[in-house]
Amino acid sequence: MIDMANMPKGALHGIKVLDLSRVLAGPSCTQVLADLGAEVIKVERPHIGDETRHWAPPTFSDDTSAYYATINRNKKSLTVDITTPAGQTIIKQLIAESDILVENFKVGGLKKYGLDYDSLKQDNPRLIYASLTGFGQTGPDAARPGYDYIIQGLSGLMSITGPSDGEPHKVGVAVVDLFAGLHLTIGIQAALVARNRTGLGQHVDVALLDSALAMLANVGMNHLASGKVPPRLGNQHPNIVPYQVFSGEGEQHFILACGNDSQFAKLCTVLAVDWHMDDRFTTNPARVTNRVLLCDELSKKFSEQPRTYWLEVLDQAGIPCGAIHNVAEALAMPQAQARNMIVNFTEQGSPVRALGNPIKLSASPVTYRTPPPQLSEHTDSTLADLGYDSEMIAKLKADGIV
Asked: Is 177 labeled as catalytic in the residue annotation?
């Protein structure tokens, strides 16, 4: 078994988090906080739990769904029916000793239970109350529910994703949920720093739509600068050429990322052509203007040799390039292994393997203390810590409160 006593203390050790969020965006935030050392109590519905427990197959051998395991390690599972007065009392007792509450209910959804920020800050002014919603706490769409897929469409993200001559595509994972979860994490950490100065908590308000709009980045800025609607370019880059997918002999695809004129000149040397001397291609703006002509010629050249040849000669010439891996190939990369990007919980008696945390801290590293909890695994111990004895806990269970 893992030696808990000798594990390093995380950067957020001593911070207590109450997690009322479900599905992906909110739990992804609280998993980051937990990895960084915070104590996270995940509040779930009795007998049902988080929806993602049932998003299967696939599952691990203990029936933990892969989806649930994605964002719930290092947490405790407490089941409470927050719609009941007794359940609300338990939550308020936990909030009284918590630093952070994370929730992703619809705007106003917790007010009827007395669990909204304005109600709770009266008793715990140091509380950092983090809300993640589809459209934010304000504005004409605030009351609308939010879903990653819908927001990918509304935000313009799908309009710039996919082949130029085909339909818009969503990204292969729920990136808006994950973007927003990370933005919420950053907001919470900023609020912790502010609390150190003022002694007061605050409401952190993050919306899926806001997050997705911010992540349009340079493509959104292209529109603001030009007034033009950015086109869908497939695997091409709107501002850099050549910066896209090409195919070697036998339809073996790879990425070429020529980011500047010097790299383009090196590419021409590798290809034994003098296109870098041609006014149509000498500079990046010229190459963007003449994108179709240049990339058609490059495609012809690259079809003459297999991908392995091009990756070798381009890499030797210092030209950015890379193979397109499937997920199995990506996770098997020696670099991924060296960076501990696959976490194994066998020492804790669990069959779960998980993707690692990319944050590497030298003095207070992230830790992988416990696998994703079984439903209600920590209900008894959490209630006992609040002063409930065995008879009181048994009655709560009999009444369906926990």
From this structure: yes
Query: Are the CB atoms for 142 and 210 separated by under 8 Å?
Result: no
Domain borders along the chain are 4-215+340-398, 243-324
In angstroms, the CA 199 to CA 196 distance is 6
Average pLDDT (285-314) is 96
* Sequence-separated (6 or more) residues with CB below 8 Å from residue 94: 18, 41, 382, 386
User: Which residue matches tokens 């495609």?
Assistant: 299
pTM, to two decimals: 0.92
pLDDT score of 230 more than 70: yes
Instruction: Give 44-53 pLDDT, tens digit per residue.
Output: 999 999 999 9
Q: Considering the candidates 19, 116, 148, 177, report the single residue annotated as catalytic.
A: 177
- In tens, the pLDDT along 149-182 reads 999 999 999 999 999 999 999 999 999 999 999 9
What class does CATH assign to 243-324? alpha beta
DSSP letters along 97-122, please?
Answer: T-SEEEE-PPTTTTGGGT-SHHHHTT
At residue 337, the 3 state secondary structure works out as helix
At 29, list the tokens. Answer: 């935030």
Domain 4-215+340-398 class, CATH top level: alpha beta
